[in-house]
Fold each of these.
Amino acid sequence: MIVLGIETSCDETGVGIYDSERGLVAHRLFSQVALHEPFGGVVPELASRDHIRKLLPLVEAALADAGLRGTSLTAVAYTAGPGLIGALLVGATLGVGLAMTWGVPAIPVHHMEAHLLAPMMENNAPEFPLIALLVSGGHTMLVDVRGVGDYRVLGETLDDAAGEAFDKTAKLLGLPYPGGPELAKLAEHGDTAKYRFPRPMMQRPGLDFSFSGLKTAVMLKVRELEANGSLGDSAGADAIRADLASSFQAAVVDTLVGKSLRALDQTGYQRLIVAGGVGANRSLRRQLESKLESRGGCVYYPGNEYCTDNGAMIAYAGLQSLKTGFPADQFPGDYTVHARARWELGQPLSA
Ligand code: KG4
Ligand code: ZN
């Protein structure tokens, strides 16, 4: 089985081709970072228009890389949600159009399910059951994963996502766009204990998260430091920014690690997978690895390039969907274009 995957839910145009026997045979990605940089955030309409420009050439290039023709594919998988609706519609309409032309099924894929399954593309893929910590720019959730397609959301964020908190705090510290990775870099040089920011929701039972209060705490501290002149242009100000970044990152990481361990305790599982953009954070990885090791568990990640948005994970998720009996009512002959800005993980598309 060979599946073409298309990802256009946000600001990355991604295409991947996954072969059930040979693994990933093509992977192309175009990042729109430079396009959105002057605006300090993703501009949805610009994102849609750029996906239109880039997607078809990327599909053609991926097919050429793999030495395949469209008609040799088994299916076309595309991200159907959640995400920016205009951006999603570009990938969905092209994906369904190509599938129709080639006479193969078009498979709508849940973006977070694809993130969740991305570690399975690696050589040391974990077995089920496991807990998934999904941490991206739009989502923060803990999921009980008993198998492909068998997901129970145990907890999620009540307000900002972890990546969103990283991005907003980075902006507050005057860091360039995209802020999350920049803040993480700066945090490596700071003192994690210099400022004591709240560990939101840790005192409460349950597995939900909340990051907006933490962002506000950093903002208040920044204002205070600005007011007393500590955050001017001096060399000392750079050190303070690094301490702020480090103390903020420590608060997010402590919360993510604490709740992940709680989810493992609650279910009795020993395996944790971490996926989504924030999963690339080195401090988060270091802490999870040491905690899991000390309790005889193991933590798994996707390869570095497959942590953030990409087409390979969509192709892989589409393949799993085919293997586990892609809903018969959607094929043959169903070329409905599915695109949903909101779509809860584990819920059917039609719900
Ligand atoms: O999964 P992703 O590429 O896109 C979404 O589906 O949202 O995640 C992007 C998010 C952004 O918020 C970005 O700032 C964050 O992941 N991110 C990081 C790091 N690398 C990316 N956050 C913290 N540390 C990092 N190293
Ligand atoms: Zn994502």
Note: The radius of gyration is 21 Å.
Amino acid sequence: MTKLAGLIGFPVAHSVSPALQQAAFDYHGLDARYEYWETQPEDLANRIASIRDSEVMGAQVTVPHKQATLEFVDTITDDVRALGACNVLANEGGTLAAFNTDVTGFVRALKEDAGTDLKGKRVLLLGAGGAARAIVLGLAREGIASLVIANRTVAKAIEVGGVASGLVAEIGAVPFEGKAVAEAAAGADLIVNSTTLGMSGVGGSVPLIAAAIPSTALVYDIVYNPPDTPLLMEAKKAGAQTLGGLAMLVYVGAESFEQWTGLKAPVAVMMAAAQKALAAKTRH
Ligand code: ATR
């Protein structure tokens, strides 16, 4: 019996997750297939119920279903509870377990691909959406010294900052543009973009220009398509170190694979497949 896993979201056609998961299944010689499970909100309950079938190993969950999915699962981890969102489901003999691997995937890329120790770092985070919540939890646990969240809607920045409360000594929320964000950027060791600005198909203005980026900072854009986002190009102009979003995507996927199969994820194979799939998508 061919085992199945898939990506639940809307839309999902842009994703390279199927390519990197299939590469991992094939690497281990598993009789398994990864599918695009594009799902409208009104079909979510049925879609998730189908994951209990014995041939289904689990699913990855993306926008806009990371919160709503929780209503239909049996068990959740502490991270899922803290964030109110999940990105992975595993079918454990008909019981549905929900995980959040965004937190660990985000931090692992910083450690392994940028060689960063987050302890004591001053961080500017752009954006306060769903991805930002997981990022804030990851940063807070790693012992950063201060966090400023800049968002178009400041009330959301304040709310997301609450995820770090009690863990980070200084937490600030500022509007997305203007003096306060420029000041936070000037004093930052790490600048993270979690907004959708710069994403292929979304576009928009660059969140920070080179003149506002210290050459000593690490600039991390979790957008992975295009690989050279407008923000990363500004960061390079400023002489800053850069990190794109593909490593996080691969680590998030690797952890999902390990939950489903109990096997070690072939990270290098998954990264190569992701890069190839991304290059093919950018050519079209
Ligand atoms: P995700 O789950 O990927 O984080 P999201 O929850 O829709 O996606 O969040 C998108 C983020 O990008 C938000 O911080 C959003 O700002 P608002 O909270 O003010 O909406 C930000 N964003 C999207 N478009 C933007 C734009 N044109 N300018 C500034 N910020 C933008």
Note: DSSP finds ten helices and twelve strands in the chain.
